[in-house]
């Protein structure tokens, strides 16, 4: 590990997480190339969070394309060992999209029956809560899908993909109820996406995975929770200390030639100036 130590925010989930660094700058490109090989981070929502929390927190990616909650449970102790010397400050979890796919006649595939999905998510919540008293957890529900585009882009490589908004809605509601029962914050992406104009075309690259517009919605919803949650310490980006933020005579010199300008809190490079 490199120092100084920063809070760790872990993104844990399926392809919505693994692809959360795709597109954009060279750091995001490296993160995409090394997904599941190294760990790091503008493009997807993970890369956006890494930019927002630059010099404040380390955003760690644990995303696994095609996974469901059943597979997540199989590796939970390896991804989040209880005896780790440092535990995350925040874990953002997304499973449910693959679980909610219609079952295949062969019995193969990612489908997980709704009652089992509910129990799996409860087990994930309890395990994470057991890691430390200060860990914070956010679950993301299934976003909706563009059903027409999903059906239109199914290639000959795959058997029929059964992805419907009726199923996504059922698993989204179940995730919300799990959050209520376990005390975990839940972001209802199923509803949040549908509040956006032209969401079916604007929010996805292939009808399922997120475009830049879809990623912006995820980031905004996460920041809302981090700002409103009564957590101590507060994990909203404006409340997390900036590393090495002291003034320096080595900073760029101001126009008056008499002082330097501290750039540690500059955000002008961001497309969206977030609260």
TrEMBL record:
GO terms for biological process: lipid catabolic process. It holds the Pfam family Lipase_GDSL_2. SUPFAM superfamilies: SGNH hydrolase (SSF52266). Residues 12-216 form the SGNH hydrolase-type esterase domain. Keywords: Hydrolase, Lipid degradation, Lipid metabolism. The keyword Lipid metabolism applies. GO terms for molecular function: hydrolase activity. Belongs to the 'GDSL' lipolytic enzyme family. PANTHER family: GDSL ESTERASE_LIPASE CPRD49, ISOAMYL ACETATE-HYDROLYZING ESTERASE 1. This is GDSL esterase/lipase CPRD49.
């Amino acid at each position: 590990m490199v120092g100084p130590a920063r809070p760790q925010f872990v993104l844990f989930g399926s392809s919505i997480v693994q692809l959360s660094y795709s597109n954009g700058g060279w750091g995001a490109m490296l993160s995409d190339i090394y997904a599941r090989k190294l760990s790091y981070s503008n493009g997807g929502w993970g890369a956006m969070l890494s930019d927002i929390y630059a010099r404040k927190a380390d955003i760690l990616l644990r995303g696994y394309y095609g996974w469901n909650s059943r597979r997540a449970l199989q590796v939970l102790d390896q991804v989040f060992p209880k005896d780790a010397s440092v535990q995350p400050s925040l874990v953002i979890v997304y499973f449910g999209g693959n679980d909610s796919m219609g079952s295949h006649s062969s019995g193969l595939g990612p489908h997980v029956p709704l009652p089992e999905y509910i129990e799996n998510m409860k087990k994930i919540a309890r395990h994470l809560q057991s890691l430390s008293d200060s860990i914070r957890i956010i679950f993301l529900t299934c976003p909706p899908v563009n059903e027409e585009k999903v059906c239109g882009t199914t290639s000959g490589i795959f058997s029929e993909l059964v992805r419907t908004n009726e199923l996504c809605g059922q698993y989204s509601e179940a995730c919300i109820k799990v959050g209520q029962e376990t005390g975990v914050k839940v972001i209802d992406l199923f509803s949040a996406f549908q509040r956006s104009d032209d969401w079916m075309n604007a929010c996805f690259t292939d009808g399922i995975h997120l475009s830049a517009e879809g990623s912006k919605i995820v980031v905004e919803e996460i920041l809302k929770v981090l700002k409103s949650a009564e957590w101590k310490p507060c994990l909203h980006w404006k409340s997390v200390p900036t590393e090495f933020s002291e003034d320096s005579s080595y900073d760029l010199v101001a126009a008056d030639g008499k002082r330097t300008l501290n750039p540690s809190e500059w955000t002008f490079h961001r497309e969206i100036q977030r609260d």
